[in-house]
Amino acid sequence: MTQRINIQYSINMESLPQEVNRLLRGTFMKLEEITKTTAIDNVLSLAATREIEKVRLTLIDVDHALNDINNLINGYLAYETQKNISQATDTDETENTEQSNSGEFEEKVARLQEAIAAAKENEVPTPG
């Protein structure tokens, strides 16, 4: 069995669907290749065990590739979900701030009106 390593690279978000499709196509091509090229004439032979082992190793590679693709998709979905939650939270905070500001404004207007009314009551008539 060959050793596996993780690699990392970045792409534009707009390129993600094409990249995932590219990886899927490569994986599906491996599956097609083993179904087309695998031929076992004598099933009870050493050649059959070698051929089966090649298929098994290819299936392991396919499984790893599909796991990587699945992780990419799950990462994207988690990103989108978090972005939507963040946007919803920002909207709620904006609405709460606007309501709070509106309440403060109404309170200030009421105090101003009270101050004007009090000033009118305390107003000394000027001789005229």
Query: What's the order of the H and E elements?
Result: HH
Number of helical regions: 2
Rg, Å, rounded? 35 Å
Q: Which regions contain 5 or more consecutive residues with pLDDT less than 50? A: none
Mean pLDDT: 87
Shape annotation: rod-shaped
**Class by alpha and beta content:** mainly alpha
Which assembly state applies to the chains in this document?
single chain
The biggest sheet amounts to: none
- For the termini, the CA-CA separation is 109 Å
Instruction: State the helical fraction.
Output: over 70%
Number of E-state strands: 0
The portion of residues forming beta strands comes to under 5%
Describe it.
The protein is an all-alpha fold. Helix 1 packs antiparallel against helix 2 (46-121). The model has no long low-confidence stretch (mean pLDDT 87). It has helices spanning 16-37, 46-121. The longest helix has 76 residues, at 46-121. 77% of the residues lie in helices and 0% in strands. The protein contains two helices and no strands.
Task: Characterize this entry briefly.
With 128 residues, the protein is mainly α. The protein is built from 2 helices and no strands.
Q: What is the strand and helix layout of this fold?
A:
Blueprint: H1 16-37, H2 46-121
Helix pairs in contact: 1-2
What structural keywords apply?
128 residues; mainly alpha; rod-shaped
